[in-house]
Structures are given as C-alpha cells and as structure tokens.
Design goal:
The two termini are 15 Å apart. The chain is flat. The protein is built from nine helices and no strands. The chain has helices at residues 2-31, 42-87, 89-103, 111-118, 122-146, 150-158, 163-201, 206-215, 219-247. The chain has 260 residues and is mainly α.
Length: 260
Amino acid sequence: MERILDTLREKGASTALILGFFVAWELFCLVANISDILLPRPTQIVAALVKFWPAIWPHTYQTLYTTLVGFSIGVVIGLFLGVLIGSSRLAYDTAYPLLVGFSSIPKVAVVPIFVLWYGAGTVPAILTAMIICIFPIVVNVATGIATVEPELEDVMKTLKASKLDILWNVSLPRSMPYFFAALKVAITLAFVGSVVAETVASNRGIGNMMMIASSSFNVPLVFAGLFVLAGLGVTLYVLFSLIEHRVTGWAHRKTDLASP
C-alpha cells in the first residue's frame, strides 16, 4: 500500500509540473499580450486541434505510417549491422568509419536525392526515417555485444559452445538493454526524418500540413501539428519502455525491496 501511495505521489508531482508548464505558458501569453501569430496560447492550440482534426487526421496517419515503416526497416538493418560490427573486429574497422561519416551528413541533404530516385511522396519519407534511426541502433547493439563480460564467454567455451551459440545465448541477451535504449532514441529520430522529408518532398503528412499552415499564418495549426508529433513520440516511447521493462527487467537494479 505504501509503495502504491509513493507511486501515486510521484505521478501526481510529474502531472502537476506538466500542467504548471502549460498554465505558465497561457498566463505569459495573456499578461504579455503576445499575438497568436508569434506564440499561440495552449488553449488556442487545443482549439485548433479540435477545429481542424478532420483535416489533421489523414496527415497524422500518413506521418505515423511512414515513420513506423522506415523505423522498422531501420531496426532490422541496424540490428544486423550492430551484431556484425560488435562480433567482428574487421567489420568494426571497416564499417564503423563509414557509418560515422554517413551519420554526419544532414539528412535533409539526402532528401533531394531520394526525390530524384523515387519521386516526391511516401518513399522519400520512409527512407529518411530509416537512415536517421540506423546509427543509434548500430552503436548501441555493437557496444552491448562488444562489452560482454569475458568470463561469460569463457564459461560457454568450456562447454564447447560455438561462436553462434555464444552470440545467441550470451551476447544478444546481454545487449538487449542497449538495444531498447537505442529503440527509444531511434523512434523519436524517425519522426524527425519523416517530417523533414514531408516538408521538402510530399503533399501529405504533418510536415506538409505545417508548411501549408505557416504559409497562411495559421500558427495555432502549426503548433497543433507539433503537439500531434509530440503525442505520437511520447506514446511510442512509453510503449517501448513497457516492452523493455518486460524483456530486460533482469538488467535493472531492484529498488523496491521487500519489507522485513
């Protein structure tokens, strides 16, 4: 019972801080008499969400679709490269510098190339979301595999385990906390990639909607798009956190000890 009360107090404090932020934002705009063209109040943004939701929803679905597809492909590629780089010194020396160099390129710079190859539309957004989330997954998975305790590998070798057995039974499970940490970062970056592509080369999606709204000075609608993106990002982040807790609960330090 005491643990439940402590949890409720923590959640209540977090909720109060979040609500306090939006209340302060509202009051600041009212007291300073700031125009909604510069900074709309939260109530105006919510009103824009309600008013334009029938038009916002198709764009939301498009952005969510391109983000999840690109993210899924990026996870598969990133996991494969991470396992390869973490397991092989030769692969690390060869592929890692290439990945670092490619990751350093601003992703908005590759969108015109994707448009040239595939035309404007959904494919450039998917590819941009894919490439932007590969690097954190590769780095974290490779780190998790490369930092497996040598003692664990020695035990497996004494049991006549092959390299594949060690990878499957020791290295991959050991790297799961790193993998899920990368997923939570990558999903937020995937939204960035999708929106960047939509602002440059698409006629659908939240990014395109925000560009049209800004050209007509409908700033509350622009912020409504930001709120939608934030909501999607937080929802998927929480979802992966719940999955992480179920899959890698063994790796987290226990803070709730049984009372004597």
